[in-house]
Amino acid sequence: MKALFRSFKYAFEGIFYCLKTQRNMRIHFIFAAGVTLAGVYFKIEMTEWLALFITFSLVITSEMFNTAIEKAVDLSTMEYDERAKVAKDVAAGAVLLNAVVAVFVGVFVFWGRLWEEVIRWMN
């Protein structure tokens, strides 16, 4: 049981490390919080919550993997190496793709509701 708690401790240390040191991780969390508040405000459906939480998870975990890959690559070489660059670029690209998908999901979930809100305010 002690080993299980220790593994959770290490996992939380990794999350907090990313939040403390990675600007983009903080940005992802801020957007996730904002979208969550919007979901509460607009009373979105359960399936929409599921889509949003899956995309939050994909973006945040890919950012964490990106950080881990960057740190491992930095540990492996102090000199410029094209393979190290490719590893870092591919990891960053994965984050970007997940973030773009998250934006599309957010637009899909909120566009109609936001438009209705704008129309309501204008009248």
Brief summary of the model shown:
By secondary structure, this protein is mostly helical. Helices cover 91% and strands 0% of the residues. The longest helix has 41 residues, at 82-122.
Could you explain the architecture of this structure?
This protein has 123 residues and is mainly alpha-helical. The chain has a single domain (2-122), classed as Helix Hairpins. Helices cover 91% and strands 0% of the residues. The chain is built from four helices and no strands. It has helices at 2-21, 23-42, 46-76, 82-122. Helix 2 runs antiparallel to helix 3 (46-76). It is globular, with a radius of gyration of 18 Å.
- Briefly, what CATH class? Mainly Alpha
- Distance between the ends: 61 Å
List low-confidence stretches.
none
Helix content: over 70%
How many individual β-strands? 0
Please give the count of helices. Answer: 4
Q: What is the count of distinct domains?
A: 1
Using only C-alpha atoms, the radius of gyration works out to 18 Å
Residue share in β-strands: under 5%
The residue-averaged pLDDT reads 96
Order of SSEs: HHHH
Question: What shape does the CA trace take?
Answer: globular
- CATH architectural group: Orthogonal Bundle
Sketch the major β-sheet: none
If you consult CATH, what is the topology? Helix Hairpins
Structural class determined from secondary elements:
mainly alpha
Family: Belongs to the bacterial diacylglycerol kinase family.
Binding site for substrate: 63
GO biological process, one term: phospholipid biosynthetic process
InterPro entries: DAGK, DAGK_sf, UDPK
